[in-house]
Structure of Cation/H+ exchanger domain-containing protein:
Amino acid sequence: MDQAKRLLCTRDLWNPFNTTFVQTCGMLLVSQIFHVILKPLGQPGPVAQILAGLVLGPSLLCKIERVRQIFIQPAFEAYSFLLLFVFRILFMFSIGLEADLPYMSRNMKRIGVIAAWNLGVCGAFGAAASFFVIYLLKVASHRFAFAIIIMIIVASTASPVVVRLIAELKFDTADTGRLAISAALFIELFCIAWYSTYLAFSAGNMFGFALVCILGTGIVAYANRFMAMWCNKRNRNMKFVPGTEMSAILLLVILLSFMIEKLGFNSMISCFLVGVAFPREGKTTRTLLHRLTYAVNNFILPIYFGFNGFRFDVNYLISVRNCIVVALVIVLGIGGKIIGTLCACHQLNIPRNDAVVLAFILNLKGHGELLVIEAFSRSDTWWDDNTHKLVIIIVVINTLIAGPVVSFILKRDAKYFAHKLTFLEFLDPEKELRFQLCVYESRHITSKLGLIASMTGSNRSPTVTYLLHLVELQKRHRRKKKLMYHQLQDGDQFSDDDEYGGNDIVEINDAVDAFTTDSKILVHQNKAVSYFPKVYEDVCSSAEDLRVSIVFLTFHKHQRLDGKLENDKDGMRIVNQKVLRHAPCSVGIFVDRGLTGFQLPSPELAQNVATLFFGGPDDREALACCKRIAMHPYVNLTIIRFQSSGQPKKKEVHDRNGEDEEQHISICSYEVDMAIDNVFMEDFCNRYVTSGKVKYVEKRTENGEQTVEILKEIGEMYSLFIVGKGGRGNSPMTTGMSDWEECPELGAVGDILASAELNLGASVLVIQQHRSATDGHEDNENPVLDDDD
């Protein structure tokens, strides 16, 4: 401590403290330059950040004597170690906080098999390589400990590097990317636990300390949960928790880490577990994610990767012996990952393309193995500094190889790895469904939460829910008065970007928090601030990045107290129309009727829902959506199938420029569509109607007028009507209904249900299937059959 004070108070401008600060600033600046250059080439951020460290380190700039004297000082290692130690605590806690626990629990077998094969094969390769490395480096003592280090280096995977790389490539929502993140966490935590177990056995008296570490981790996890709930109650009317309270939570984690390190163990597992145990709902979690994510992605990890590159010294590769060691370990590491992952994926029936990407992702290094070698270098006098440098070289080269390879494969096979589940018709209801809901104001959130609850159905139907708050950016937005940072009140944000949305943000957050607490359904919240002409781009790009199968939009009208619909914000209708045209997935438009419409299903308030089936891809999509709703215990679902009671005549078209051939193709397409409808409905009935979960009713109608009369009869029996937008072309059952159509984006039936003519109290959900799945039924406007004249 006295030495640190002397270094801080010295008059020398280039003391180690100032030097560390200048290094971090230089790494951020140079890494940003590299990132701008390499991003168009598809290279991820960690590569640019490691290269920035290489430029500033002994491999390049530090070859200049004056720069070397400034950047590399006797106490520099102590400062950088403390800085990187705090950074590791924060990003491991952040990784635990963002861990996808439901996905891990559902895919534990796949994650375990991939991790086990990788650890087994790479461990065997590392054990074999250790004999040659020990011989080449002439290691005379502690050979068993050295062999363990080589095995860990070959087998380990750096989970922070994996998380950052996959996020940079927008691959974190793909199944392969999520599988890679989960397997990387499992492998790295196992390697750290392996190292800690070795320390316990070698020291002999470490098991008592291990129990103290476990107890301390449990106490801090419980204390953080209590503090999170207390902060949520204390800050009810605030968007974020004040910085002082958030700092107290992080301080507990940092103190726990220092205690564990003092006892001789590694604290990264404890930091991760404390993050995993932290509550997933409330303002406290939202504040931590908001601030930690920004800090980790923009400062902590770039500096961490930069320091890894800074410690890379190319001078150690001059020796042929060192080059052989580096090449041997790298080749065996890559080979072990490829062989282990291919064997695991063959056992799990995972395609080979995914296996190759997984193998190179799991070959990323730069965290767990550095923790191990730094611990050995501090605790054992036998550890050689040259060996330490070689390990760092191996880690850096591995990442510089694996990162570009993964980026190249994903870019080359972009169509293969693109999101394919863009609609619901063929999605197994027991498979995971990803969907997104869009709201503009707080009054839109109540019915959307009811829709989320009904779509979740049961535990057998896993879902991932995203809520996108769309905020209009006014052209003449009056910005708040600019204040200095120290003039802001505690809990305020220095940037005014978070002020967009007003009190709606607080009300939406409170509603979502209460819903998550009661239902245990996690809702991932996002916000998009844009001008209305560009809002549809935010919705579509978000849907594509999150790989959702359906997006639910808000209708541009809201219900007044007298029951009539009134136009909402200007531009909402145009947004809905553009999203329907450009969305990369299916789209639903929800017409909310307030208290008389669809509500949150509960034992006290069961909801009656009706699905109207006329036929066609959009109606099949609506029926597929109902597979999830049918599983909810407090939703009574009824399928009403409309069938034509007459036999319409086919058009008689004379041979005029091939029109009869086109008519024949249209008729064949119509018959194929009818056959698909029948098969789909039969499968639905066998699964849900025969078991009594869903009621089934058939209605006969000859024309649109009779259809409207039927809709009037059943209008007050249900709180929600679900219908496809397009139906099956110009069907006789809907003929004439579009003559008074007011909102074409709802389709003929949806527009009638939402119109003032029927004056229904029920909400309406209109669904359009993703157009790439409709085989050319772009607008469902190709006439096939005519009415009887």
Notes: The radius of gyration is 31 Å. The CA atoms of residues 19 and 464 lie 46 Å apart.
